[in-house]
UniProtKB/TrEMBL annotation:
This is Os11g0108000 protein. Residues 24-240 form the DUF6598 domain. Pfam families: DUF6598. InterPro entries: DUF6598 (IPR046533). It comes from Oryza sativa subsp. japonica (Rice).
């Protein structure tokens, strides 16, 4: 939001001394940990609904997960992580934030057949997240027909990183499959961005990722590529890259594989001042 330095940004050897970051919330993952719903069986489970955070920035819903009934997310019991779709901007934590969620299990032809998985609202404050740098905090969310875990962390002196992914070159025929995750700072928890996405041509993926990272901390990109049609036992090619978080500016990082060139651009920004009454 504020990638360009302002006139009052006076840089020194360590960077901008005006915009030193702020307290921000980073959500790492959402995981289905138990199902008590009747007649679910071992089949993949389809979930839909939303999870959103309201903070002091503008009090609107900032969606972390948002799926309609016509496009549910399919959860595999062998890999029960739910791929997050947001947030759309950084989540400020100068004051407690409100976490809202209404996620359901799709069954049958109509909504009357569906089951309520979790449905509640809860506040998140700094006192609930005592380990901002060492690890993420996991909260258990219990519901009528199961439970989920959400992993999150409070980051002090944090800035916003907005990431865009572009496929600039595809070599060979058949395309490739891409998976991408990242880590922020010294916290080992992964943030899954893409999971086995099939790419066949040049494109700019219509999704942006917004992350929180401590200023001058390291954002680690973990990209895996596997050529389409490769043998099942063949391991994907993995590439790790690290970027140092800054208060302002942009960095463009080409990641070159045998079958493709993938361009990752990251805009660094401080959160803007909150809206006042």
């Amino acid at each position: 939001m504020l990638s360009d330095p302002t006139t009052d940004c006076r840089p020194n050897w360590s960077g901008c001394i005006v915009h030193s970051g702020s307290s921000m919330l980073q959500i790492f993952s959402l995981k289905l940990v138990s199902i008590t719903a009747p007649a679910i069986g071992d089949d993949p489970i389809q979930v839909y609904g939303f999870m959103a955070v309201r903070d002091h920035m503008d009090c609107l819903r900032n969606y972390v997960f948002n799926r309609g009934r016509d496009k549910p997310f399919v959860v595999s019991l062998s890999d029960p992580f739910i791929l997050l779709s947001g947030p759309k901007r950084g989540i400020g934590m100068e004051t407690p934030a409100l976490l809202e969620y209404d996620i359901r299990i799709k069954r049958g032809d109509g909504e009357d057949d569906d089951l309520q998985l979790i449905d509640r609202a809860a506040t998140i404050s700094e006192t609930e997240l005592p380990l901002p740098y060492a690890q993420a905090y996991t909260r258990w969310i219990a519901g009528d027909y199961g439970a989920m875990n959400i992993s999150l962390a409070l980051l002090h002196n944090a800035i916003e990183a907005t990431m865009h992914i572009q496929i600039t070159e595809v070599r060979g025929s058949g395309g490739f499959d891409m998976s991408m995750a990242c880590r922020v700072g010294q916290i080992p928890n992964e943030i899954k961005l893409f999971e086995s996405v099939a790419i066949a041509k040049l494109c700019q993926l219509n999704k942006r990722f917004v992350l929180a990272i401590v200023k001058r901390g390291i954002l680690v990109l973990d990209l895996k590529v596997k050529r389409s049609g490769a043998l099942e036992e063949e391991e994907p090619v993995r590439m790790l890259r690290g970027l140092k978080g800054k208060a302002h500016g942009q960095v463009i990082l080409p990641m070159i594989f045998d079958c493709a060139t993938i361009l990752v651009s990251v805009h660094w920004s401080n959160l803007p001042a909150p809206m006042l009454d």
